[in-house]
């Protein structure tokens, strides 16, 4: 029996997904679990796996198409079986979303061209009372100054989608504006050879970062606590435990691995720091899933190490290396980015001493880690030189107060001072 391949919903409030590439061609034999295509979501480019054995057939959406969630884009059939006829009608609808913005931009005259004769206005919404608008579409409309009553809905069941809003915004931006004649421009100056930044709208992960950091910074009441910590014992723990892990598992233990393990143990004592703000209330998270911020092209993703309090340091190191390699290659899977409950972001490798990080909702906290560097500090009443680092905890004041966050940070500092007593499994 034929099995449909649909555009999956990889995160909450997702409306569409963009097909980056097909990893299998029509007619290829595939097995359940084989990666068959790459999809770009608001978080990353992820691989989608086959849900059945068979032959790929009936591919109705190509690379670059933006497809509504739940729409069939291909079929997995038995050898010699034809895909269901319904798939033949799916292609126009699949491309409707991807073409909306292109058509809006292409139809608008360039700023310097004379205005074309007015065309018949497309049907628009006279009242929003009976039309569904997703929260994301409303937010984008507000940011771009788009009047939703003037937007033509093309989403499922006549809903206004984010693509509709972006198409309307593109039309507004391209509309001609009457201006006074500009003053003569100065002689052009040659740009430095290294300048390669290209102007244009943000896309993919860069767009996600812009939207989510703005949303977090403007809606989450952040407060910050900082501690200067002696990292000598952390260095010693890496020297003690690292060689054994590298010998047995073939992976080097990093300071981030140690911090993941120590933070996870501290969160067991302070479950409030592992909670989330959801639907105007606090949600307790039964599992401690540490999200590690990783730099990728055009942005940062939070790859998750699940149940970090229950696994060994060696397992953390292996998982972190695997996630890092796949993040850089754009091969993260949906499960790699899901259900994080606390984030660690480390810029020490870039020689940053200290910084404040923005929380990733619905998580209530993120720990920013600076570099380890020798500093002159008091040691037993005398002037000494010690390897020091600064950690800064950003917290959501709706979930925790200053005292609760301070007690967590104190226990984490104690664990960093004596890692061998923190309960970390090797």
Descriptive overview:
The chain has 8 helices and 17 strands. It is of the alpha+beta class. Strands 9, 12, 13, 14, 15, 16 and 17 form a 7-stranded mixed sheet that branches. A hairpin with a 2-residue loop joins strand 10 (276-278) and strand 11 (281-283).
What's the total helix number? Answer: 8
Q: Distance N terminus to C terminus?
A: 48 Å
What composes the largest sheet? 7 strands, mixed
Based on DSSP secondary structure assignment, what is the total number of beta strands?
17
Query: What structural category arises from helix and sheet content?
Result: alpha+beta
Give the SSE string.
Answer: EEEEEEEEHHHHEHHEEEEHEEEEH
Helix content: 25-40%
Mean pLDDT score = 80
The fraction of residues in strands falls at 15-25%
pLDDT < 50 stretches: 86-122, 174-181
**What's the alpha carbon Rg, rounded to whole Å?**
26 Å
Globular, elongated, flat, extended or rod-shaped: what is the shape? globular
């Amino acid at each position: 029996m034929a099995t449909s391949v649909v555009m999956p919903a990889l995160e909450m409030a997702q409306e569409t997904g963009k097909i980056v590439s097909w990893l299998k061609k029509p007619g290829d034999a595939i097995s359940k679990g084989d990666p068959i295509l790459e999809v770009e979501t608001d978080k990353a480019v992820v691989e989608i796996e086959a849900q059945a054995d068979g032959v790929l057939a009936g591919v109705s959406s190509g690379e670059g198409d933006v497809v509504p969630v739940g729409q069939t884009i291909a079929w997995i059939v038995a050898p010699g079986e034809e895909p269901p006829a319904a798939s033949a009608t799916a292609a126009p609808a699949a491309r409707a979303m991807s073409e909306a913005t292109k058509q809006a931009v292409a139809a608008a005259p360039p700023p310097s061209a004379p205005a074309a004769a007015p065309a018949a206005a497309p049907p628009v919404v006279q009242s929003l009372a009976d039309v569904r608008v997703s929260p994301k579409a409303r937010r984008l409309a507000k940011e771009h100054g788009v009047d939703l009553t003037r937007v033509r809905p093309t989403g499922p069941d006549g809903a206004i989608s984010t693509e509709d809003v972006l198409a309307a915004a593109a039309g507004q931006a391209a509309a001609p504006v009457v201006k006074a004649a500009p003053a003569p421009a100065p002689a052009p100056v040659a740009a430095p050879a290294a300048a390669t930044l290209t102007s244009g709208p943000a896309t993919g992960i860069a767009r996600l970062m812009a939207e989510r950091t703005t949303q977090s910074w403007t809606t989450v009441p952040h407060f910050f606590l900082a501690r200067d910590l002696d990292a000598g014992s952390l260095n010693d723990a890496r020297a003690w435990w690292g060689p054994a892990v590298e010998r047995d598992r073939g992976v080097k233990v990093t300071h981030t691995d140690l911090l993941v393990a120590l933070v996870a143990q501290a969160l067991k004592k302070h479950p409030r720091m592992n909670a989330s703000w959801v639907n105007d209330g606090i949600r307790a998270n039964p599992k401690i899933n540490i999200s590690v911020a990783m730099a990728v092209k055009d942005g940062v993703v939070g790859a998750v190490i699940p149940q970090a309090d229950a696994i060994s340091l060696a397992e953390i190191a292996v998982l972190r290396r695997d996630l890092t390699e796949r993040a850089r290659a754009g091969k993260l899977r949906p499960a790699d980015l899901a259900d994080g409950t606390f984030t660690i972001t480390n810029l020490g490798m870039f020689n940053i001493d200290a910084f404040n990080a923005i929380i990733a909702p619905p998580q209530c906290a993120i720990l920013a880690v600076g570099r380890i560097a020798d500093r002159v500090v008091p040691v037993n009443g005398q002037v000494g030189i010690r390897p020091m680092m600064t950690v800064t905890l950003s917290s959501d004041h709706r979930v925790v107060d200053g005292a609760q966050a301070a007690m967590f940070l104190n226990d984490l500092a104690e664990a960093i001072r004596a890692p061998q007593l923190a309960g970390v499994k090797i």
